[in-house]
Queue: 2 jobs
Job 1
Amino acid sequence: MVVPVASDGNERTVTVADASSKGLSVTPALRSYLLEHSLPQTEAHADLVAATREAMGDLAIMQIAEEQGPFLTWLARLLGARRAIEIGTFTGLSALCIADGLTDDGRLTCFDMNDEFVSVGRPYWERAGLADRIDVVIGPAAETLARFEPDGPVDLAFIDADKPGYRTYYELILPMLRPGGVIVFDNSLFFGEVLTDTDDDNVRAIRDLNAHVAADSRVDTVLLNVGDGLLMASKR
Ligand SMILES: C[S@@+](CC[C@H](N)C(=O)[O-])C[C@H]1O[C@@H](n2cnc3c(N)ncnc32)[C@H](O)[C@@H]1O
């Protein structure tokens, strides 16, 4: 397909069959380009990524995709978020990014069942000057979240823990959310496996959740190809 893409009016050939097939797979070079043109990350962010690789080895794959970090900061700022919730903190990169975007008096409450993981991140929250915005609740999130009473309406929630729990977390958080508040789910494409007929518990849970949220008249929903897929629901 030949399209005018240059400011000098020259036409270039790009490999796009038609508008319905637009889209790119993100190479490492393209990921760097995305990051270079997004909200700058601090040294604490980069050092936390490195520390996670060193301390966690192969488990570091659980960390959010790097381009999701600036997006979460940007979204928190866009919402003017003062109260945020995170389910699934691991070593704290997404928490660092969300806390960075909160108002100065904002608070992020993180729910995770593994304090060893979270401990890796705490020094980096401190170095970024954001530790006093972050509370951590340790335990199975279905139980700890059910007991949680925020001191006002929640603006933003990020869900990135066990996939079979997503539906429970969604139903518990939605009543806490202010109208216009947003719930973001990670791994909503599950490496593309949502399109396969596998009956893996995680994939089934993601497929069911995507269908449930998309059909839910309490929210407006968009599913975007960022990292491993972000499903986002804003409360009507
Ligand atoms: C994919 S990692 C989260 C990654 C994190 N958002 C980041 O940016 O690095 C998933 C986390 O969910 C936690 N988790 C899994 N099942 C849980 C449960 N039932 N309750 C609370 N936390 C859980 C794990 O301990 C792990 O830290």
Job 2
Amino acid sequence: MKVIVTCAFGLESLVKRQLMDMGYDNLNVNDGRISLEGNEDDIAKLNINLRCADRVLIELANFKAVTFEELFKGVEKINWTEILEADSNFIVEGRSYKSKLFSVKDCQSITEKAIIKNLQKKYKIDWFSKSKNRFRIEVSLVKDICSITLDTSGDGLHKRGYRTHTGLAPIRENLAAGIIDLSFASKNRPFVDLFCGSGTFAIEAAKKFRNIAPGIDRKFDFMDFNQKFNNAYKSEKKSALQRIDYDSRIDIFASDIDGSSIEKAIENAENAGVREDIRFVTRDFRNVVLKDNYFVLISNPPYGKRIGERKEAEKIYEDLGIKMAKFNTASEYIITDSEDFEKFYGKKASKNRKMYNGNMKCYLYQYYGPKPK
Ligand SMILES: C[S@@+](CC[C@H](N)C(=O)[O-])C[C@H]1O[C@@H](n2cnc3c(N)ncnc32)[C@H](O)[C@@H]1O
């Protein structure tokens, strides 16, 4: 099967690196999409273990289509009865970019009609109840090339299942995991988040350090495709459970000024099975006492989107810069939407990277400290 892993723009290299670490080669990387060859076991492995990806898709067909007839024929040709049963709940989604077939709604509707025509040949029925397991199919047109894919993930992979509570501006779990992967954070160094909100960075760090697969506790659409997929899920989940590192000593500190956020973060950490690994404290970051012990700080301070809040956010960046200047051995990673962050922080970043938290354009300011002796 041709498998496509999707991810946020800018995170391709991180996803590629993880895929290579997992033993995949022959990877084809294109804006937000990485393709590879795989089978049912790979679908399970990718969904359960990928930390920064969005979804895992199976490509069913790829052809040129500039008319609705070409689209219809290309979709009808796919052996849908191998995939869908008479009562499968199939949903067609769509997108079109720089293509003659630009009406996404029409493309969805043509695709659905072609699938139904194909299914009618075998199942000999006119009405499809769509009452059983879900299959999300996507018709995607990019520069007149049509790709028909089946989504194996269901909910996006950023939904790990543990975050039942969030604050006002939570960071996406897979973006948090990506930033941790980019950073010097490791189980051998103290980890600090001084603006933890719902606890995402601390929880993702704990999961990484304990080698807990990100998707270990959630459901995926592919589990209900057929028995072969279901067996692949069970076997991958079993080996993911065996890989958990229960023994390492890890040091994670997470604080926030808002007590109700800390309560939510504690609940989320409990859901994720890492409550014991994180020290949560309700405190203004200015009053947190830290040791100069090669800690890695990863934080997402307030954005200050609204006018009155901007000044407050800038004061926070300034005070954070003054605080962090006292630590010679720390490495810091700050994600914010501010283009002027370095000016307020008082220090030029070793590296600055553009990233998207959902639709919000942000920058990751990276300050590299020395390696631990
Ligand atoms: C953008 S949110 C962080 C979201 C977090 N990364 C998450 O995933 O939920 C910023 C956080 O900074 C906290 N905050 C604001 N002022 C603070 C201060 N002076 N000291 C510590 N935390 C503060 C807010 O309560 C809020 O939770």
